[in-house]
Amino acid sequence: TAAISIKQLKKTYNNGFTALKGIDLEVEKGDFFALLGPNGAGKSTTIGVISSLVKKTEGSVSIFGHDIDKEGPLAKKKLGVVPQEFNFSQFEKVFDIVLNQAGYYGIPKAEARSIAEHHLKQLGLWDKKDTQARFLSGGMKRRLMIARALVHKPELLILDEPTAGVDIELRRSMWSFLREINDQGTTIILTTHYLEEAESLCRNVAIIDQGTIVENTSIKALLKQL
Ligand code: ADP
Ligand code: ADP
After folding, report:
1. What keywords would UniProt list here (predicted)?
2. Atom of ligand 1 at shortest distance to CA of 15?
3. At what angle do helices 138-150 and 109-122 cross, to 10 degrees?
4. Which numbered atom of ligand 2 lies nearest the CA of 15?
């Protein structure tokens, strides 16, 4: 089965603007996939629909065979999302933010603590575990979002522009973290407008422009065309 299967996905916002014009996309289990495209192409809208934050107008989305409409809870269990905007409480402490997320998924406390500790250590945030989120740098907040998205051991991790505004050194260390997560079997999809990021990380890529998928191929084949 595919990690995700998107069929004829359309989104028209309430103001009448059609951001997605009928997207078909399939990403295989184990893949590291980039959704590449300029600002305004529809990348965040696509992720919004997948994570049920944005109501779709038409079409279907399945995660490991679970339709997000018909089997929402099963689909959600398999999915971890790192949105672009920081959406945690700035006054909560780092460790608590990750643990509370585990609570939503009903993960036993001891297990949640050990998973959270593992990822916070890998992401260089363990010494900040008792720090309120508002005292973290932008890059640290970004990494906190990643630790939080992984706490229920999702099989599919989707990240919206994970390294936007992050300096090159931190970007490289985030890349190697993501490679490791993918090597351990987690399917990863990220959106980016940096070709370099897709080139460094991904096996397959789709290019989205004005709400339409205009290319869907391996990163190798794409680079040959350029
Ligand atoms: P939905 O169709 O998913 O219900 P809405 O059309 O109601 O979404 O818009 C959701 C929110 O996004 C609104 O608060 C709206 O003001 C805001 N919004 C409107 N236009 C844009 C835009 N171009 N980019 C980002 N957000 C926007
Ligand atoms: P990307 O993530 O590729 O930059 P988005 O999915 O954020 O693109 O946006 C796609 C298009 O939809 C843009 O033209 C954006 O202005 C518009 N848009 C996004 N959110 C809303 C909204 N809530 N209401 C109306 N238009 C929106």
Report:
1. ATP-binding, Nucleotide-binding, Transport
2. 6
3. 140
4. 25
